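During the first year of the project, the team set up a workflow for recording each protein of interest as an amino acid sequence followed immediately by a discrete structure-token representation. This format lets reviewers and collaborators read both layers of information side by side without switching files. As required by the reporting guidelines, we include two representative entries from the current panel. The first entry is reproduced here exactly as it appears in our internal archive.
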Amino acid sequence: MELSSIVEALVTSSDEPLSSEEIARLVRSRVAEAEDIHARKTEEGETTDPLPDWMTALAELAEDQVVAAIAELNKSYDESGRAFSLREGAKGWRIFTRVDYGDFVKQLFPGRKPERLSAPAMETLAIVAYRQPITKSAIEAVRGVSCDGMLQKLLDRELVRIGGRADLPGRPLLYETTGLFYEHFGIRSIDDLPNAGELRKVKLPEPEEETAEISPEEQLALSATEGATQEEDSGESTDESTDESESTEASAEETQKAEA
């Protein structure tokens, strides 16, 4: 049994992408299991045959051997004209249909139309990808315009996520790309982006002072406080007006008495 066939069986059977490390671990685990079973059968006299050479050769399987086996698989796919190939994404290896057959595959999903990002959304996504984690103010400093709507669109499409808060005054939110972003663009890490090393070092414009985003609960509390303050101010104004009115009436009565 060849390693390439074992790798193919694992990748096609898994619901999730498998990394080279995970594939190697699964193979070693199976060999260890087989060795334990063989040792028990040997002790009980059920067998005297040794384990197959191909299995014992996989006892110390390494990641680079898995990568080599996958390269062998892709080469055989190319030579035989298969419609798919193995590609490595951010989470591991998966089988993908070749682009040449995309128009035929689309017929499986007649109601699904391709969604495209607008130029402003792509600009915002590029800034997040190259300079993540990054705050909204830093993004706006580069683009020169507000990016609330663009960020929300990217969040809705799960290409960007909130990765925490910056250690800055106001603790602003930090934005970063998601696993779907890497899968969609067919890359494993930010280092696979064009000119990543250079663009990640370019000095960006200084953002304005960061401000914290107020939650709905804080907004309600603030509104209640402002309302109470306004009521107190209104009450004080009413009391002052009443005092002034009473003082005016008293002065008028004294004047009438003096004239009489």
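The second entry, processed by the same pipeline in the following quarter, appears below.
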Amino acid sequence: MLTILIGAALAIGAVITAFPFPWMLLSSVKPQSESIDYPPTLLPQDPTFEYYIRLFTELDFGRYLANTLIVVLIGGVGLLLMAMAGYAFAKFDFRGKSGLFFLVLSTMMIPVQVTMIPTYLILNGMKLTNTLVGIALPTLVSGFGIFLFRQFMSTIPTELLEAARLDGAREFRIFLTIVLPISKPILAVQAVLVFIGGWNSFLFPLIVASDQKLYTLSVGLALLNEQIAVNPSLQMAAASVMVVPILIVFIVFQRYIVQGFALSGLK
């Protein structure tokens, strides 16, 4: 009986938690007249995709989407850099290793607001303001990502790497052909985190880019909420464009995410 009650409570909690998502999707295909009706209705009476079309034909969301994808792809370079750093901390001994790793971990305790102005000044000095590279660069690598890779790669048997070295393989080849294939679970975890970070990037695009043509989807959504007074359907359509790809990526990589977090805590 207790198990049934707990299951029912969890099911009710899950429905309440997930309810805003189907409400958002259904509201995005309602005509404006239906979206402001009172009392509101869940299912649209006359569904339309007019507002999705309007986003990409009138409101420049196609450009915002392209900018966001470019920022995400640039973040893929950071994924490789974090994997290399994690491998170095896990499998190499060098002077100052412990202190350097402590510095990497300490960056996780520094709020981004503290480094915002210095970061902007550095990007401005490098002539990278008002560029997509400048938008992606501040979040290219993270201490948490390096920590995850280091924890996972510490579990890779050193004997396997030594055998590859005895066969004449160079370090970069060992990294590409042995370490990365073994690290698929944690690569999937970090790839999802990088994707979410790039897809939701709001602060640095707003600070670094003065040209509206370089804005990302999250900034475009904020602008939309300021520009459109009362059109819940249009705003829900824009929110759906933001949320649905993240959910798809999470569902696709869900198995690897759980496995990666579990294995990264072994050592």
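For the second entry, the following points were noted during internal review. Residues 31 and 37 are 10 Å apart (CA to CA). Residues 232-264 form the longest helix (33 residues). Both points are flagged for discussion at the upcoming steering committee meeting.
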